[in-house]
Write the structure tokens for this entry.
Amino acid sequence: MKIKIADYPTFNTTLDKKETKEKTKKILKKIGKLQYKMYGQNKFSLLVVFQGIDASGKDGVTKDLIKYSNDVGIKIHSFKKPTEEEFAHDFLQRVHAVTPGRGELRIFIRSHYEDILVPSVEKYINDEIIEHRYNLINDFEKLVESNNTRILKFFLNVSKETQKERLIERIESKKKHWKHKDSDWDTREKFDEYIAIYEKIINRCNDIPWHIVPADKNWQKTFFVAAAVLKTLKELDLKWPELVSERFKSGK
């Protein structure tokens, strides 16, 4: 069954803000404890991928997600436009280089999907190459998961109206001037085109399923992301490792 982004809400009307924020805080604290145990065990890893249109809140949810976690064992990578050096290699080379090692929680702010998304809309790579990339990404993600790594993929579903409000806020608020880029307004003019490609990506690369998260309200976005991360960490067989010592063996 084809997934249609339009069928998913950008805002959940059934949630109480105060109650949800209290639940989220408890969830985030549990994530912190399990993340540190995962680091100590050094067996499993978790890759969290955030994708979404400009101003969907990828940076904000990243900050919220690790609020109660230990910096040890957490790495964040934000994918920008490929450099000339990166363009000289296959498109997954720069991604594979920063996948998580055992024990790590790695967060991608944008990801390998940018190498389908942007060239599809902006038309600077031919369709045949882009089509091939869908299959390569599916194979790549299976390879990453084969190394005891779980992958969680989130599409932050923000409405066109809310995106405009957030882009204007970057102009009007001095604290957010650093986030402003003129190019974001150019991209906004192609909002529907980008959403159409995202929909294709979600359907073509859903072997590892996507979570489509309502992103118009930051507190809701954090809640849904955190709940999915906690569920995944609980599914792992996380244990504190046993003492390894010749000198201090049990009973001696």
